[in-house]
Specification:
single chain; alpha/beta; Rossmann fold; five-stranded parallel β-sheet; three-stranded antiparallel β-sheet; 9 helices; 8 strands; binds cytidine-5'-diphosphate
C-alpha cells in the first residue's frame, strides 16, 4: 500500500472538514489535527483578557506567548481532542458564538499566522496526519500528498452548524449563524495573509446534498486512486 502520508483538508466554515478529517484519520490510523483551534485559542484568550482583537501587536504577542496544548481527550463528553490554554481546559469554550464572531479578525493578522505556523509545520512533518484549516494546502503543507477542498453553500453550512449547536444542547439561532458564516467567509477569503482558496492541485468536493458518509466515500476513492498511481 502506498497511502498519502500527509493529507490537507481546507474549506470555508462548517463545510464538513472536521467530520471528514476525523473519519479519515480513524480509518487510516493517522493523527487528526484541526488548526482552527489554534486561532480560536488566541481569540478566546483575547476575549478573556479584554484585549481588542483588531490590535495586531497585542494579538501577535498573545499568539507568540500562549501555551496551547492539543492532546487526546481525558474526559468522556463527546470531545475528539482537548485543548488547554496555559493549562486551562477550553475545549468547548473555543466554539462559543463569541469566539466564532471574532476569530477571523484575529486570524487575519499576519503576525498571528506567523506565530502559529511553526507548530503546524512541525506536526505536518511527522507525517501520517490529516490536517484541517484554511491554508493547509497552500501555505502550511504545500507539498501535502493529497489536498481536498470542501465547499458547500452558506445556507447548507449554517444549517449544519445550527444542528451541531442544538445537538450539544446549546441555544442557537439559524439567522445569527448564517450571518456569522457570511461574515467569516468574507474575511477569510479577502485577507492579505494566506486567504482561503483551493490550492492549484486540490481536489474540490462540493458537499451540498451529500451526507457525511458520501463525502467520506468520495475521499476514500481519492485515497485508493493515490495508492493505485503510486504503487
Ligand atoms: O469549524 P469552522 O470551519 O467553523 O472554523 P475553524 O476551522 O475552527 O476556523 C476558525 C477560523 O480560524 C476560520 O474562520 C479562519 O478565520 C481561521 N483559520 C485560519 O485562518 N487558518 C486555518 N488554517 C484555520 C482556521
Amino acid at each position: 500500500m502506498s497511502l498519502p502520508q500527509r493529507i490537507a483538508i481546507d474549506g470555508p466554515a462548517a463545510s464538513g472538514k472536521s467530520t471528514l478529517a476525523q473519519r479519515l484519520a480513524e480509518a487510516l490510523g493517522y493523527l487528526y489535527f484541526d488548526t482552527g483551534v489554534l486561532y480560536r485559542a488566541v481569540t478566546w484568550a483575547a476575549l478573556q483578557r479584554g484585549r481588542a482583537v483588531e490590535d495586531a501587536d497585542a494579538m501577535t504577542d498573545l499568539a507568540t506567548h500562549l501555551t496551547i496544548d492539543v492532546r487526546p481527550p481525558s474526559v468522556d463528553d463527546g470531545r475528539k481532542y482537548e485543548v488547554l490554554v496555559n493549562g486551562e481546559d477550553v475545549t468547548w469554550a473555543l466554539h462559543s458564538p463569541e469566539v466564532d464572531v471574532k476569530v477571523s479578525t484575529v486570524a487575519a493578522h499576519p503576525g498571528v499566522r506567523h506565530a502559529l505556523l511553526a507548530k503546524q509545520r512541525e506536526i505536518g512533518q511527522r507525517g501520517k496526519v490529516v490536517m484541517v484549516g484554511r491554508d493547509i494546502g497552500t501555505v502550511v503543507m504545500p507539498d501535502a500528498d493529497l489536498k481536498i477542498y470542501l465547499d458547500a453553500s452558506p445556507e447548507e453550512r449554517a444549517r449544519r452548524r445550527y444542528k451541531e449547536r442544538l445537538a450539544r444542547g446549546e441555544p442557537a439561532s439559524y439567522e445569527q449563524i448564517l450571518r456569522a458564516v457570511y461574515y467569516r467567509d468574507e474575511l477569510d477569503r479577502n485577507r492579505q495573509a494566506s486567504p482561503l482558496r483551493p490550492a492549484e492541485d486540490a481536489i474540490i468536493i462540493n458537499t451540498d446534498g451529500l451526507d457525511a458518509d458520501q463525502v467520506f466515500q468520495r475521499a476514500m476513492e481519492l485515497i485508493a486512486q493515490f495508492d493505485a498511481e503510486h504503487e
